[in-house]
Amino acid sequence: xxxxxxxxxKNKFSDPHSVTLLLLLIAxxxxxxxxxxxxxxxxxxLVIAYLLDWPVTRLxxxxxxxxxxxxLVILLFVGxxxxxxxxxxxxxxxxxxxxxxxxxxxxxQGKAFLLHLPEDYPALISQEQVRTLVIGVEAKAFELxxxxxxxxxxxxxxAVAWLIYLILVPLLxxxxxxxxxxxxxxxxxxxxxxxxxxxxxxxxxxxQIMNYIxxxxxxxxxxxxxxxxxFSILDLRYSALLGALVGLSVLIPFVGAALVTIPVAAVAxxxxxxxAQFWTVIIVYGIIQALDGNVxxxxxxxxxxxxxPVYIIVAVLFFGGLWGFWGVFFAIPLASLVKALANAxxxxxxxxxxxxxxxx
Length: 360
Description:
The protein has 15 helices and no strands. By secondary structure, it is mostly helical. Helix 14 packs across helix 15 (331-359). The chain has helices at residues 2-13, 16-35, 40-60, 66-87, 89-115, 117-120, 127-157, 159-178, 180-190, 196-233, 239-248, 255-272, 276-300, 309-329, 331-359. The two termini are 29 Å apart.
């Protein structure tokens, strides 16, 4: 056993380029794991900088320098964010507060529907099963209410931190975009010269991460907007709130769509009952999800995502457990990074074997 481990280690890490890549990977994971909460503004700024780098680069061709291009793009981005904050967030907050006020009536209506199931379908479900289910739902609803209260109190305590982030993040984004070349040169000076594999992995991931972030923003907007329009046409209440939830659900591949189905179905059942209009809402929602998964995702992420769904779900669970929201958001790029690392080490091993054969 020891000889096998020794042979594997010699095969993988006899090259200094492999050792440099491994040490950089360990250091990056350690920093994110132990100091993640302290570098959240940097991560947010990095995501936004990736998103805005493309328009800055294009605008730089038409204006005298990069500073002016960065300033114009940042001002446009902040203006769009403020417009969304002032125009969309109040509507969502109003609908959310109304939904929370009506949630007890929705729970009672759902309870009454469940209690009538044994009368309508006595061969499929018993009264005792319904009672057990109702008790479980009530307990979960009580836990959810307690969680919402605790989250609201925590959010009040973190309001000062959010205000600081609102100032720090735009500044970080501005300097990341303005001094991109200088910052990249500084990072390169810190990395050892044996960095062939690092350059290989970076060149593969840089384009994928940029496409992924930009694609996710477009996907959220398209899916959320299409859901809002469809729900409004069907006269479904809380259409803006539900459309926003459906749009944000794409951040969690596969799992998000299943979770958002619950509030969509609950609101539709509360409003229409189990009638034709309810099934129309469910069918339209299913069509939107099918078009997103089979048409929109391949168009937006054809170059950024080339992973089996099993790997994606495992990545969401693993990285989401490590880093919460940002782990879920970057689950696919991180899984792609693991794949790129495996390919780099595999190619390095194959290359070393070929070199060995050539010298014989």
